[in-house]
């Protein structure tokens, strides 16, 4: 019956079609490689043989074609960048490539992302890195390198002096593999960027990495990515200890781990004393609003962190207005002080609860500034201690023309020190102390003093900046922002909690502070640079 309905002719037609398609793919592969070989002969520096997504195997380079390509690489001195990502290359291709790298000194960047290179291929590449002195960047995202391959790579990193960037994102290294890499970091003095994102790393390996970067005083590592792993509080505490003494690291990514409030507290304490870290990523962990509060305190003393992203996990009925207000205030102070340091003519911190500690920080900026003309510190809870420090700064500063300290907590002692400054500093033509708890005698003395240029305005309390209303009463399930790579355990989550994300950014012209709610898809403009944005948008 099957023959009668024409089944055999259909099978034959499918076989002929498959053979024709295979021939077409092989011809396309050969054509791409031939073009690349011609580019090498012409002296092209950057050659791309990137394939398509892994689901489309039609663009993969065939083994025979790749063998011809590597043969042509021998003796080439013009190519500096080679992209071989998404080609389904396995261990044999990596071995052939390693044989060329052992004697090649011109290639600076090699992209092998999204291939199928395993431990055998990694061993061959590691052997080449032991003698290669030209390669600066090796990208091996989403391959199949395990702990054994990582151990061989570790041996290479101990002696290699040229590699600057190493990306192992999405390889199943596990703790054993990451510990091997950490062993190399104890002595390596050239690596600057290391990505171990999504590598199945837990507390033991992250602690070892922290120890390595703490003990190696000659380390040059500036960016470390440990996101989407299994790091908990114990690992975060060890990393925090490293941050207190490390002076080289600029960017640390710990998003999508299992860090809770204990780890957040130690990281915040490290941020408080660290003066070199510029970016810290803590999105999608298990940090509550108390953890956010720790960072609010730390940012009052840190002036170098330019980007902080942190997710607060709170009960669906828990208000977090206070944490948002404090974080917003800290952000506004940092942004204003940064602008003053860069030459802004006016510094306005009205309605921000600086207190005496904040006033001392402002005074340090005033001492150094040569462009500041106006200083407005109304409703800032500044007392006599802060006023005294500002007075000392104004003795040095020769550019400020007008100052408003209205509606603070400055008493007679602070007012006397500020009035004394006016006798020495003739640049200041107006000092507003209205609304402070001054005695009638002191008020009369300020007005009657022959050299006084003090104003006692009856300043009314300005409307406070609107708060971010983030009190949620509806339950929304927590979802992962990025797809979990297969084969790796996902960090634990608490499904009864709601996440709210704080993104503080003080980079370039994009100074902003954002709050995102994992259950709200819309965006609400709250106040100027403070806004709520949809979580599915790239931040």
Mind explaining what this structure looks like?
The chain has 539 residues and is of the alpha/beta class. Helices cover 39% and strands 14% of the residues. The chain has 15 helices and 19 strands. The strands form two sheets. Strands 1-2-3-4-5-6-7-8-9-10-16-17-19-18 form a 14-stranded mixed beta sheet. Strand 18 and strand 19 (530-532) form a beta hairpin. Helix 5 runs parallel beside helix 6, helix 9 (261-273) packs parallel to helix 10 (289-298) and helix 10 runs parallel beside helix 11 (321-341). The longest helix has 35 residues, at 7-41. The termini are far apart. Residues 459-497 and 506-539 have low confidence and may be disordered.
Strand order of the largest sheet: 1-2-3-4-5-6-7-8-9-10-16-17-19-18
Radius of gyration computed on alpha carbons: 30 Å
pLDDT < 50 runs, ≥5 residues: 459-497, 506-539
Count of DSSP strands? 19
What class do helices, strands and sheet pairing give? alpha/beta
User: Quick check: average pLDDT?
Assistant: 79
Tell me about the largest β-sheet: 14 strands, mixed
> How many helices?
15
What is the end-to-end distance?
Answer: 62 Å
Overall geometry? elongated
Portion in strands? 5-15%
Could you estimate the helical fraction of the residues in percent?
Answer: 25-40%
Architecture blueprint of SSEs:
Elements: H1 7-41, E1 46-48, H2 63-73, E2 81-83, H3 91-101, E3 109-111, H4 119-129, E4 137-139, H5 147-159, E5 165-167, H6 174-185, E6 193-195, H7 203-215, E7 223-225, H8 233-243, E8 251-253, H9 261-273, E9 279-287, H10 289-298, E10 307-315, H11 321-341, E11 346-348, H12 355-368, E12 374-376, H13 384-396, E13 402-404, H14 412-424, E14 430-432, H15 440-448, E15 454-455, E16 497-505, E17 512-517, E18 524-527, E19 530-532
Parallel strand pairs: 1-2, 2-3, 3-4, 4-5, 5-6, 6-7, 7-8, 8-9, 9-10, 11-12, 12-13, 13-14, 14-15, 17-19
Antiparallel strand pairs: 10-16, 16-17, 18-19
Helix pairs in contact: 1-2, 2-3, 3-4, 4-5, 5-6, 6-7, 7-8, 8-9, 9-10, 10-11, 12-13, 13-14
């Amino acid at each position: 019956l099957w023959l009668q309905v024409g089944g055999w002719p259909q099978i034959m037609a499918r076989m002929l079609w498959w053979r024709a398609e295979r021939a077409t793919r092989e011809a396309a592969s050969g054509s791409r490689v031939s073009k690349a070989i011609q580019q090498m002969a012409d002296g092209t520096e950057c050659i791309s043989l990137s394939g398509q997504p892994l689901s489309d195997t039609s663009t993969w380079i065939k083994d025979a074609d790749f063998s011809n390509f590597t043969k042509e690489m021998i003796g080439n001195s013009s190519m500096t960048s080679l992209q071989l990502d998404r080609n389904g290359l396995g261990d044999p291709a990596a071995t052939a490539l390693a044989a060329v790298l052992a004697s090649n000194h011109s290639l600076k960047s090699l992209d092998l992302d999204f291939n199928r290179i395993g431990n055998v291929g990694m061993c061959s590449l590691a052997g080449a890195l032991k003698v290669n002195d030209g390669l600066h960047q090796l990208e091996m995202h989403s391959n199949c390198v395990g702990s054994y391959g990582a151990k061989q790579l570790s041996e290479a990193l101990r002696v290699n002096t040229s590699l600057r960037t190493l990306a192992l994102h999405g390889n199943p290294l596990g703790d054993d593999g990451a510990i091997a890499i950490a062993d190399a970091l104890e002595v390596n003095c050239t690596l600057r960027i290391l990505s171990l994102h999504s590598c199945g790393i837990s507390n033991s390996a992250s602690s070892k990495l922290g120890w390595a970067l703490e003990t190696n005083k000659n380390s040059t590592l500036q960016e470390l990515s440990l996101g989407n792993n299994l790091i908990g509080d114990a690992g975060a505490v060890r990393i925090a200890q490293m941050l207190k003494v490390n002076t080289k690291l600029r960017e640390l990514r710990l998003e999508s781990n299992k860090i809770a409030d204990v780890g957040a507290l130690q990281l915040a304490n490290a941020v408080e004393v660290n003066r070199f870290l510029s970016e810290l990523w803590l999105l999608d962990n298990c940090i509550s609003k108390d953890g956010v509060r720790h960072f609010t305190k730390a940012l009052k003393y840190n002036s170098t962190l330019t980007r902080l992203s942190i997710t607060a996990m709170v009960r669906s009925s828990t208000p977090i207005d206070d944490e948002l207000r404090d974080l917003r205030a800290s952000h506004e102070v940092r942004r204003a002080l940064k602008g003053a340091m860069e030459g802004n003519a006016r510094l306005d911190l009205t309605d921000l609860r600086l207190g005496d500690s904040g006033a001392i920080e402002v005074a340090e900026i005033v001492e150094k500034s040569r462009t500041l003309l106006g200083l407005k510190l109304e409703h800032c809870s500044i007392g006599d201690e802060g006023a005294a420090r500002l007075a000392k700064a104004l003795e040095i500063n020769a550019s400020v023309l007008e100052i408003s300290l209205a509606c603070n907590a400055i008493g007679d002692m602070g007012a006397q020190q500020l009035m004394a400054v006016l006798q020495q500093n003739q640049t200041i033509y107006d000092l507003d102390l209205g609304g402070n708890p001054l005695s009638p005698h002191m008020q009369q003395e300020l007005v009657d003093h022959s050299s006084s240029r003090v104003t006692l305005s009856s300043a009314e309390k300005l409307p406070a900046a609107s708060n971010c209303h983030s009190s949620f009463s509806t339950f929304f399930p927590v979802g992962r922002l990025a797809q979990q790579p297969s084969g790796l355990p996902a960090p634990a989550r608490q499904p009864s909690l709601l996440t709210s994300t704080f993104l503080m950014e003080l980079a370039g012209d994009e100074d902003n502070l954002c709050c995102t709610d994992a259950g709200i898809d819309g965006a609400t403009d709250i106040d100027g640079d403070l806004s709520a944005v949809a979580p599915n948008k790239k931040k």
